[in-house]
Amino acid sequence: MHSVLDQIASMCSETKNTTSWKISSELIKFYKNKQELPNLVTLANSCFVSPSMITKFSKNLGFNGYKELSVKMQIEIIDRSHKNISTIFDNSDSLFKENEINAINTIRDFQLIKEKLNSLINLIKNANKIYIFSTNYFSDVAKLMNIMLLSKGINVVYMNKLNSMISIFDNISKKDLCLFFIGGSGSDEINFYFQQLYNKFQVENIFLFCTHSKIFKFNYPNNSIIIDTDFLSHNFFERTFSLSYIIMQIDLHLN
């Protein structure tokens, strides 16, 4: 899709007093003044048009409605300004907006691993059975992956107990897929079993999600995703957000 700011700016050169000219001129005014974009009703009132005309204007630009249009504009404004988020939005909620933009940038950053995600999705589709191993640190998101795969009717086993891993280790075949979620302290045992499976099977049988610090423990960069990014702090909640987004994408592509 073309730049929405460029599209709106071009409408300002249209004949004055048309509906499109009124709306586009008002939106550009907010952009130039570095003000937060108004809501649907406020914008309609300032343009002396009905809210339905704002919706129609947004749909003519290819959006579902004004909310989607305004979000796209906000992202572009931030990209172009290269300034701190607090210079664009009200200072009272600058931290909220900063976290919001960092989350958006993290999602964009995951575009770089699209090929790896597509590869993982194909591995999931072709596996006879899927085994999910996790450290305690990532047990919640590993369970989320387990629930998602079960909802698709996929044969999956989840475990984060060392004795459980030992008991099923010899039952894993080359037609199965092993997913590892590794992070936090106390993961040396799972690291060991990961390496054992790596030695036993071909690379395609294993996929690893891990933190930046743990990836250096493995000579295994191909089928792995480092869930830490440059935009979010490397703590539990940000990592959970990143992994949850990845699982959501897998879920959508398995439909």
From TrEMBL:
Coiled coil: none annotated. GO terms for molecular function: carbohydrate derivative binding; DNA binding; DNA-binding transcription factor activity. It comes from Mesoplasma corruscae. SUPFAM superfamilies: Homeodomain-like, SIS domain. One of its GO terms (biological process) is carbohydrate derivative metabolic process. Pfam families: HTH_6. This is HTH rpiR-type domain-containing protein. InterPro entries: Homeodomain-like_sf, HTH_RpiR, RpiR-like, SIS_dom_sf, WH-like_DNA-bd_sf. Residues 27-77 form the HTH rpiR-type domain.
